[in-house]
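For the sake of transparency, this paper describes our internal protein records without simplification. The record that follows is passed on verbatim for readers who wish to inspect the format:
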Amino acid sequence: FEQGDHVKVVGGRKEGVTGTVMHVEGEVILLLTDVNHEEIRVFSSDLQDTNEVSTGMDVVGQFQLYDLVMLEAAASSLTMPSVGVIIKLETDVLQVLDNQGKVRAVRPSDAQPQKKSATAVALDGEQQTVGQGDVVKVTDGPYKGNTGTVRHVFRAFLFLYSPSRMEHSGMFVVRSRQCTLMGQSKHTENAAPNASATGSASAMAPRGAFGDGPGGRGGG
């Protein structure tokens, strides 16, 4: 292999990754990956020429790229569970962007799939219902001015996707009240009158995660 060759890893821990040869050190090749633009070293015996551009591994066990997963259950009814979106899959590790905006490396055995986010909704800064598939503009916070498509809703958090973002596979996370819906929501039928962002989204949270039972305090 020579510098500039486009190759695919066909063996070892990085199997499935594609990238460009940056440097050849005997049997070890330094690659710049297509997905995360990171430098990795692999053996030349694990490479082959390719025209394919990998998006990374798509499936690891029961998990897929961009799945929403539970990372830690709530310690009590007064604390919020930790969730995140998978932004990269490796053979034995999930790279997850959590609801605090931090990237964490998680073993698949420590994550639980969350399937309810497709129907979950929250309220934006103008009290409009937003949910999966809606396009929003961020009006406050560090991502102010960005637009994104809602991939997942959890409580008052929106996990947004923008193809123009290079880092975190295009994903970023904001609070729903920091956004404004662009166009018509696909989820207006799910809106409850006078619902709060926390209330409407928490209804979609896993059972027991927040203690919102019949005895909970209603809106004022």
